[in-house]
Amino acid sequence: MIAMGGAIGTGLFVASGSSISDAGPGGALVAYIVVGIMVYFVMTGLGEMATFMPVAGSFERYASRFVDPALGFALGWNYWYTWAVTVPAELAAGSIVMKYWFPNSSPILWSAIFLVLLLLLNVVSVRGYGEGEFWFASVKVLTIIVFLVVGVLMIFGVFTGRAVGFHTFNLGGSPFHGGALATFSTFLAAGFAFQGTELVGLAAGESDDPKRNVPRAIRQVFWRILIFYVLAIFVIGMLIPYTDPNLLKSDVNNVAVSPFTLILQRAGLAIAASVMNAVILTAVLSAGNSAVYASTRMLWALAKEGKAPRVFARLTRKGIPIYALMVTMVIGFVAFLASLYGNGVVYNWMLNAASLTGFLAWLGIAISHWRFRRAYVAQGRDLRELAYRAKWYPFGPLFATILCMVVIVGQDYTAFTGGHVQWAGVIATYVGVPLFLVLWIGYKLVRKTKVIPLQECDFDATE
């Protein structure tokens, strides 16, 4: 449920409409299927490493052990930063959602309430985070199931009295629109929508019986998420024309035109907007809960490795890295306050710097898995002894590596396709890449690290 909750959020409930509008239902389906396959390879590779070496803050550890400590340093700080910045983003989104019911209320009030709630879920015990995420994820999954059932019934004419057929899906003579570049732009949106699935690897070190539960979670979560996303987009594409202007207006500011809301309203559910607003609030709180957990555990892992101040490695008696948690919450609230002043310019730059980090994390996981398996074999170990073995090696990690790099490079390809390049937008989009390189190269120069030879990769230490 942690992995499912991390990947099912506003990217599906409100942003899926813009994907269909840009590339048509066929282009959106292709993009989500291809990216879903890539995520499958990332997740199975992560599962192989996490069952062999279950540690909190796993991405940083695996990159440091099997590739280069400098890569682990850069991945760790980059991942911590993006989730720390995600906390205020979700606080801001939560305050916007609450304005639907309380239009004259203060955004600071709601953000403070949500911040306290997230703190309570994470400060008592790791069970609090897991329990909160279980119920948040349950609401989202139940909503998608209801939506799919209602949508399929509408396709066959149960609520409207007329079966729709494929007229809307093939509007204009084809389900694909905008050409290959439009479909590629949807790859980017699909990638962001799937981000969060890797949280299951981050939580492996604190899960009960990770050698049994982590592989099971990874096997199940991919197919469930892919089915949910693909079926949801198919249903939306069958019922709402890609030319519908409402699809481009879908965001947390305007839940009334979310594809989910529109379809439920057409089925006769009068309170669809209020229901979807509550669901979107659940998705926002779920993302915030995951952000607090992920950033806290990554900062703790960095401190354990000597790559962050040692104070952040201290634990409470219940195993909570309390100082790492507190500094993440403080940074989150300060960043939220920054979003309220000066038109949020500073805060927008912070978000831009973090926008690529999900793909960088997946890239790091794929490279780490490729090296993990090569080192495992090079040291004469028996692959049959692995509790979980990823399929399609080495195609899987290589495919994931190439696709992640293509997506990272192509983030803002539209800026270069017109007659005049908007350099300010290009810099804002790609600023995360040079920051990552500065962390990686800077650590290499200071610590004189090198790529670890396969024969020297450490498989024995668990801490």
Structure report:
- This protein has 463 residues and is mainly alpha-helical.
- 68% of the residues lie in helices and 0% in strands.
- The protein has 18 helices and no strands.
- The longest helix is centred in the N-terminal third of the chain and has 37 residues, at 16-52.
- It starts with a helix and ends in a 16-residue tail after the last helix.
- The model has no long low-confidence stretch (mean pLDDT 84).
What's the SSE blueprint?
Blueprint (H helix, E strand, L loop, with lengths): L1 H6 L2 H4 L2 H37 L5 H9 L2 H30 L8 H17 L2 H30 L23 H16 L4 H4 L7 H30 L19 H8 L5 H33 L17 H18 L5 H10 L2 H22 L16 H15 L13 H8 L1 H16 L16
Compact summary:
The chain has 463 residues and is mainly α. The protein contains 18 helices and no strands. The longest helix is centred in the N-terminal third of the chain and has 37 residues.
Report the sheet-strand fraction: under 5%
Helix proportion: 55-70%
Q: Characterize the main sheet.
A: none
β-strand number: 0
Give the N-to-C terminal Cα separation: 26 Å
Rounded to an integer in angstroms, the radius of gyration calculated over CA atoms is 22 Å
Uncertain parts: none
Order of helices and strands: HHHHHHHHHHHHHHHHHH
**How confident is the prediction overall: mean pLDDT?**
84
Q: Quickly count the helices.
A: 18
Which shape, going by the Cα principal axes? globular
Structural class label: mainly alpha
